[in-house]
Structure formats: C-alpha cells, structure tokens
Amino acid sequence: MASHKDILESVYGAETPEDSQAAYDQWSASYDADNLAKGFRLPGLGAGMLARHLGVVEGPVLDAGCGTGLVGESLATLGYAPIIGCDLSSKMIAAARRTGAYAGFEQANMAERLPFEDGLFVGFTCIGSFGPGHAPPQSLRELVRVTRPGGVGVFNLLIATWEEQGFSRVIEDLTTEGAWQQVEISRPFRPYLLAEPDLWSRLHVMRML
Predict the structure, then answer these.
(1) Cα separation, 147 vs 54, whole angstroms
(2) What angle do the packed helices 17-27 and 90-97 form, to 10 degrees?
(3) Which residues pair with 62 in a beta bridge?
(4) Closest-CA residue to 102 (of 74, 82, 86)
(5) Vertex 99: Cα angle to 95 and 102 (nearest 5)
(6) Measured distance CA(104)–CA(61) in Å, rounded
(7) 116-154: per-residue pLDDT in tens?
(8) Model pTM?
C-alpha cells in the first residue's frame, strides 16, 4: 500500500487528468482521516462563505470537485438542497454518496465541458480543486456557464501559486467580458490548522452577471 507521502506526491505531481484520477481514487479511503487530522477547515469555510453571499434561495447548488463530500455535507447542514456533486474520481464520488447530502453526481473533468445545461445552478463551490496538478484556470469558464445570472460562486486559490498557474488572467478576462463581478476576496488563511504552516489560501467570491 502506498504511503500518505507517496499519494500526496502523486496528487500534486499529476500531469494529466488520468494521473489525477488515479491518485484520488487511491486516496479516497483515507482522504478524510488524513486531512481532518491536520485540522482541515477549507470545506466549512467554503460552505459558510457561499451561505453568507447566496442567502436563502431555491434551486440546485453545484459542488464542483466534491471529493469525499465534506463541502456538500456542510452545505446540507446549512439547509441547501438539492446539491449536485461532480468529481474526476469515481471512488471519491462513492465516498461522497455515503454522506447522504447529495441529490446526484456526475463524474466529470472540469477542464472539459461539464455535463450540465447553461444556467442550471443558483451557486457553486469549488474548494480544494485549483492547486498545482489539479483543475486548470479555464475550468472557471465552465463553472460560470452552468451558473445562472445572479448566482454566486465560491472557490479557493493558493496564494503562492495562483498567479503563475494563470488564475488571475482568467478571472480578469471573465470580469472584462461581463461574465461575473468580484464580490469578496477573503483574508489569507491557513487551510490546515495543525500542519503545513507555510500554506496559505484565500476564498474568492464572484457573482454571475
């Protein structure tokens, strides 16, 4: 069995969607235990930020890159439904299904066209999916496409890498094109309270136009 260090190296060193899928399939059984033991707080913060800006609404919410369902479970606890999850890894989806928080799932690659109609969702979260070796910046265009005007999207980006990954350019392009507007960028915070002290992130909140 591969060590936790080996799995992490596979996750962050993935060069293709197939590499990433294989790494997350392998990690699915221990993902929650590994991350929560380190004080992982991204899922709760991401769900809370969406709730703050989306408010009480009716309509489906997309949890993009849903993983094992930590974000969706938080959203369901806050009263959101139906929640639809999508992820590259079928084994991560199987873990998320066990939470009982989701109305449905799609196995999908965010770098390609998502299997949802235009403007279907009232909001989206994409938490923990945009680090090195993960979904590319162009994925944001698909998330915009499937979210209705007035809807809210929340995603996190790593401070150390988001510009060199190209996220700042795509965010600016979508703003210039009139696809969305920035609502808030959170203060920097550590995704892990008990580990990785040099890793810092921010939550980005955008409203679709």
Answers:
(1) 12
(2) 40
(3) 84, 124
(4) 82
(5) 100
(6) 11
(7) 999 999 999 999 999 887 899 999 999 999 999 999 999
(8) 0.89
